[in-house]
Structures are given as C-alpha cells and as structure tokens.
Amino acid sequence: MRDLSAWVRARTAVSECGISESGISECGTPDAAASRESLRDLAILYAIAVDAHDLDALAVMFHPDMVLKRDGETVSGRDAVLELLAASMRGFRRMLHTPETHVVHVEGTRAEGIATAHAELVTGRGVVLAAHEYEDAYVVHDGWWVFASRRIRFVYAARSDRYGEILPADDRVRLPGDEPRAMLGSWFTG
After folding, report:
1. Would you give the DSSP letter of residue 126?
2. Closest by alpha carbon to 133, among 189, 53, 60?
3. Is the CB of residue 30 less than 8 Å from the CB of residue 113?
4. What are the tens digits of pLDDT across the range 98-116?
5. Is residue 133 over pLDDT 90?
6. Three-point CA angle 160, 50, 61, nearest 5°
C-alpha cells in the first residue's frame, strides 16, 4: 500500500466476530481484542499522518463530529479539526511524533484510550522536544474505528538546546512564540 489513507482503512476495519466465554464465535459485535489492536494502529497512523502533513489520511481517521481539545482550545467537526491541524503543520518544517504507551478499553462499538508520545519538531527558530498525553474516545463509523474525540496536552515543550534547563521547571511548556506555562491539567482532569 502506497497511500496512507489505504493503510488507515486496512488497519481500522471492524472485525465483527468475537468469541464468547464458552469459546463459540459470536458475530454482530466488534471483537474486543482485534478492536484494541486496530485502535493502537489508528493512534500510530495518526502520528505518521501528522508528520507527513497528510490531511486526507487524517480525514479518514475522524468522525464527522470529531472534537479536538488541545491545551485549552476546543474545535468541533472534522473540517474544523483539519483546519486547526493544517495551521499547526504550517508552523513546522519537520515533525517526528513517536507514540509510546497506549491503553485501550473497548465496549461494543465505542472505546476509550489513554496514550503518551514524544515529538521532535523543527521550526524556523530551531528544534523543539516535546512530550504529550492523549485521552481519546473512539467509535465505529461506516465499518471503521475512528476518533470521536482526542484531547492532547503538552507535558513539556522545550528548545533542544535548553531541554535540561526547562524540563525540571514548573513552566516547562515553551512553544515558539508563546509565553512559558505549566502543563494544563493531567490525566482525567481539566
């Protein structure tokens, strides 16, 4: 597959045959184990698409009513989310997001996940090292798992030449052009 959107479709299709507690196949509801794997792939493909600035692949990953919350800013609707991400991408010459931990809980055609990632971001002012936390909600839409919502928080963001100085600070989120600030919220809080 040479198209990232094709990878998304191939890896997020819903398998609707599960195994009952008695070991008998049950069709009609998404298989939880296969769904967890699809959702982990979705998160990885999200990072790849953001790094590639591939808005078409990202569009495939989002529910039409997608909600994105990023450090206090909220946008609703797939088109608005794509516009926000496109504007963010224009600020970076190169992006490398590395997904790390990812725990997913599936209940039928809905799921939730928490995840972490690191990023190396190249701006016109230098290289920024960052860490993120994600809280996700997923839903089956037209036969595929997609993001219903994603909440992104910076744990830190620091110029690479000041990383050691900034990481221990309370105001360790220092994005180019923004005032230094503390991380907004933490897991499951505002």
Report:
1. E
2. 189
3. no
4. 999 999 999 999 999 999 9
5. yes
6. 150
- Token pair, residue 80, equals 């608005």
Beta carbons of 134 and 99 less than 8 angstroms apart? no
**97/85 Cα distance (integer angstroms):** 14
Please, are residues 133 and 114 in contact by the beta-carbon 8 Å criterion? yes
Neighbour count for residue 188 (Cβ, 10 Å): 8
Taking CA atoms, 66 is separated from 7, 47, 87, 92, 159, in Å, by 20, 17, 17, 24, 31
The whole-number average pLDDT for the span 122-132 is 92
> Cβ(32)–Cβ(18) under 8 Å?
yes
Decide if 137 contacts 145 (C-beta within 8 A).
no
What average pLDDT does the segment 76-80 reach?
Answer: 98
Phi and psi dihedrals of 56, rounded to 5?
-65, -45
